[in-house]
Design brief:
Structural class: alpha+beta
Helix content: 25-40%
CATH topology of the largest domain: Aminopeptidase
Number of strands: 18
Strand content: 15-25%
Order of helices and strands: HHEEEEEHHEHEEEEHEEEHEHEEEEH
Number of domains: 2
């Protein structure tokens, strides 16, 4: 790994770019990466999504090189993190070749791999120099909002490949993982409005909002079906102010996940039925609480498909030429790759090797960064060469 790459990674990890708290940080990261991309010949590198409102957490980065070329490839990443440098200070363990830090793998390390791969590809491969290369970096991937998927899908139309640089895993035998499918994700909030009352003098007149949502929690969690890879998880509960009050307001936040659109559709339909009306009645007059279900963003399912499998075979062949064995995996975690899989051949997990994501133990293996970048560069060239040959054949 070059000293400049290590310095860049340390500088990126030193910026507080948490999605919500680090509003200035995501913009700082984007501007730093935009400078590097400009040096590689990317035109109009900028931190604004054309045609979209600026999200509260910052601006997306869109950078394009050789705009208008017939062969187009899109590289995808994100600039935000879950934790801050204060919580996870950057440190480099030279003996293990590991470094630790906020977003060091997810995905500031991936952004460094992407930059190095672009540099190598442009230096060694004419097919990449002749192609239009678009880099899109999301400023709010960890807390998804609507503007980036719209921008990403617009760019994915007609691309020969969309490559996402989320971190890769590695097993005990040294085999690198390549992501070929991801679960879809739907995030929801369910608010309950009951009726407040004095817990001693007027208990029977109240409608307990917490009790209502306690029932809903059990019903939502019961939608999980491991045999079909369907999960429902309630992640937070809020409500009530004092033990001597019947609580009139409460809220829960939860998510659903599935690998296929049919499974996601079934989970959504079940939620609509469950959350359509309350069941906790006031003993005094039979009154019922009011429920409001809100969907708060998410990701579509990315089921395994022939286009992805073809890309995976080509990536594996490139890796094999460099002595690296690859195995394909389907992951339950979401990523922006899910937004492009129905529009263009898509692969994910091209970033740095790492683990402990979203935790104070998050790490990245620096020793593998050079080879990961080299494989990605050669793979980009393979994709562009094949797309160019296909384009020439169609024109002939």
């Amino acid at each position: 790994m070059s000293p400049s790459s290590l310095m860049l990674l340390e500088e990126l990890c030193g910026i507080d770019s948490r999605t919500i708290e680090g509003r200035k940080g995501t913009k700082q990261v984007a501007e730093l990466l935009a400078e590097r991309l400009s040096a590689l010949g990317f035109d109009d590198s900028q931190c604004i999504p054309p045609g979209h409102e600026e999200p509260s957490s910052g601006r997306h980065l869109r950078a394009v090189r050789n705009a208008g070329a017939p062969v187009r490839v899109v590289l995808v990443g994100h600039t935000d993190t879950v934790l801050s440098p204060t919580e996870v200070p950057f440190r480099h363990d030279a003996r293990s070749a590991r470094c630790y830090g906020a977003g060091v793998a997810d995905m500031k390390g991936g952004c460094v791999v992407m930059l190095e791969a672009i540099h190598q590809a442009l230096d060694r491969h004419g097919s990449v120099r002749a192609a239009e290369v678009t880099v899109l970096l999301n400023c709010s991937e960890e807390q998804p909002e609507s503007s980036f998927p719209a921008l990403l899908r617009q760019e994915a139309q007609g691309a020969c490949a969309c490559l996402t640089f989320e971190p890769s895993g590695v097993d005990g035998a040294g085999t690198h993982e390549l992501v070929v499918a991801r679960k879809g994700l739907g995030r929801f909030e369910l608010a309950c409005s009951g009726r407040g009352a004095h817990a001693g003098n007027a208990h029977a007149t109240g409608i307990n909002a917490i009790r209502e949502l306690a029932r809903k929690i059990e019903q939502i969690e019961a939608l999980t079906d491991y045999e079909r890879d369907l999960t429902a998880n309630v992640g937070f509960v809020r409500g009530g102010q004092a033990v001597n009050q019947v609580p009139d307001e409460a809220m829960i936040g939860f998510e659903i996940r599935a690998f296929d659109p049919a499974g996601m559709g079934q989970l959504r339909q079940a939620l609509m039925r469950l959350c359509s009306e309350g069941t906790v009645r006031s003993p005094a007059d039979g009154g019922l609480p009011k429920l409001e279900l809100r969907e708060c963003g998410g990701y579509p399912p990315w089921p395994r498909n022939p286009d992805t499998d073809t890309l995976a075979e080509r990536y594996s062949a490139c890796a094999q030429r460099h002595g690296v064995t690859v195995r394909t995996v389907a992951r339950g975690g979401a990523s922006d790759a899910s937004h492009t899989a129905d529009l263009a051949p898509t692969l994910d997990g091209l970033g740095i090797l790492g683990g402990g994501l979203h935790s104070t133990a998050e790490w990245a293996d620096l020793s593998t960064l050079p080879i990961r970048a080299t494989i990605a560069a050669d793979f980009m060239a393979d994709v562009c060469e094949r797309a160019s040959a296909s384009d020439h054949k169609e024109r002939a």
